[in-house]
Design a protein that fits this description.
5-stranded antiparallel β-sheet, disordered N terminus, Ribonuclease Rh, Chain A, alpha+beta, about 30% helix, binds adenosine monophosphate, about 230 residues
Length: about 230
């Protein structure tokens, strides 16, 4: 009798532990805010189409706001039942059109991109952020910390089609982000040159503070990178 009791208690504990592990597995440690230079969206990987709302402004735009783990892995599709619902974002649409436009072809109103990002990444931040607060947080973080283009221009780094030294670009980006460890990603332009594509900064899990990125993806850049005009 006692053995049976212990056994069922043990199984019960195992089940609780498994449920707890599933919950922990869907949590996250920090956010990557990935911003991209729209002039570098076109290249060997994809061609670029302006959204139906028109050519985006000359500014870095959001590419992703990704809940991530300190070991660099990025959870995805954490809640397949939580579908994107644009009506929940009606007060944010004009800000999203400016700061998070789709550049994919064919031209679109960007809704599909936001939906993909919510379902793939946003659902993994549900312990802290519902759909509205997730997008509001991404916009707030982008607009309140660092204007990347403005900060680079202060140091004479312009999107003028010239080639820049990778190390000086990284040095200037780091100082633009108050000394925090940030990352860069390059892709290839139509001629196969390495071009400055995205900037990875890291935000604590509450979405309040910049932090040193615990880990960064491979930059995939040459020693000299093109900063194309837009
Ligand atoms: P993710 O799905 O968030 O991991 O990001 C990578 C995907 O997002 C790739 O398929 C990219 O082509 C796509 N992507 C990144 N930036 C944009 C953009 N501005 N417009 C449309 N698609 C994009």
């Amino acid at each position: 009798m006692e053995t049976k009791f212990n056994c069922s208690t043990f199984i019960g504990l195992l089940m609780i532990q498994s449920v707890a592990l599933i919950c922990v597995a869907q949590d996250y440690d920090f956010f990557y805010l990935v911003q991209q230079w729209p002039g570098s969206y076109s290249g060997t990987q994809h061609s670029r189409c302006y959204p139906t709302t028109g050519k985006p402004a000359q500014s870095f735009t959001i590419s992703g706001f990704w809940p991530s783990y300190n070991n660099g892995s990025i959870p995805t599709y954490c809640d397949p039942n939580n579908h994107f619902n644009e009506t929940k974002l009606s007060d944010l649409i004009s800000y999203l059109q400016t700061d998070w436009p789709s550049l994919a072809c064919p031209s679109s109103n960007s809704t599909q991109l936001w939906g993909e990002e919510w379902e793939k990444h946003g659902t993994c931040s549900e312990s802290g952020f519902d759909q509205h607060s997730y997008f509001l947080e991404a916009l707030t973080v982008k607009d309140s910390f660092v204007d990347i283009l403005q900060m680079l221009q202060v140091d004479g780094i312009q999107p003028d089609g010239r080639v820049y030294n990778l190390n000086s670009l990284i040095y200037n980006l780091k100082s633009a982000f108050y000394g925090y460890n940030v990352g860069i990603e390059c892709n290839e332009d139509e001629s196969g040159n390495s071009q400055f594509y995205q900037v990875y900064s890291c935000i604590d899990r509450t979405g309040i503070s910049l932090i040193d990125c615990p880990v960064l993806p491979d930059a995939n850049c040459s020693d000299s990178v093109v900063f194309p005009s837009f």
